[in-house]
Amino acid sequence: MNTPDPSTSDSGSLDVRPPVEAPVVVPPANQLDILGILYYVLAALTGLFSLIPIAHVVMGLAMIGGRFEQGSNPPPPMVGWIFLIMGATFILGGLTCAALFAMTGQRLRQRRGYTFAWWSARSAAP
User: Fold this and answer.
1) Residues 114, 71: contact at Cβ < 8 Å?
2) How far is residue 122's CA from residue 86's CA, in Å, rounded to a whole number?
3) Which value, to the nearest 10 degrees, does the dihedral of the CA atoms of residues 98, 99, 101, 102 take?
4) What contacts 24+ positions apart, CB below 8 Å, involve 92-98?
5) Beta bridge partner(s), residue 14
6) How confident is residue 1, by pLDDT bands cut at 50, 70 and 90?
7) 9-18, 36-45, 69-78, 110-119: the lowest-pLDDT one
8) Cβ-contact 108, 39 below 8 angstroms
9) Helices (DSSP H) in 1-126: which residue ranges?
10) CA distance 112 to 28
11) Which residues are paired to 8 by β-bridges?
12) Cα four-point dihedral sign 14, 17, 18, 23
């Protein structure tokens, strides 16, 4: 019985295929270090952008202090309190998230607190 040789094709020429390269595998320890560094970057950016409402806090303080009384119809102090409270709340929330992201990066690089890292990642996702 004649069995076809797998190294030849129907036309009789050799089937030349490029060698299959093994995929580059990064060790898990290195991946956790990279993920921890990226969490530090996320914490820094979150902290930076959470300070944007400082303008609202300053404007709220100016409204409460009467600095916007330029005409006969100044804004009521309640509007200033709303600006102050909302701005301070957003700043506090953003800095809290930044601190949690920094703690997550630290724990990932120390190879502990995986549940904490999971909850931190879950809370950051929309």
Assistant:
1) no
2) 25
3) 120
4) 93/50, 94/46, 94/47, 94/49, 94/50, 94/51, 95/47, 95/50, 97/46, 97/50, 97/123, 97/124, 98/43, 98/44, 98/46, 98/47, 98/50
5) 8
6) low
7) 9-18
8) yes
9) 28-49, 54-65, 77-109, 114-124
10) 14
11) 14
12) negative
SS3 1: coil
d(Cα 105, Cα 39) in Å, to the nearest integer? 5
Report the C-alpha gap between 70 and 73 in whole angstroms: 8
- DSSP 3-state assignment of 14? strand
d(CA 109, CA 114): 11
> Which tokens sit at 69?
């009384």
Token output for 27: 């060790």
d(CA 88, CA 51): 9
The pLDDT of residue 67 is 81
Identify the residue whose tokens are 């970057």: 41
Residues present in the chain in total: 126
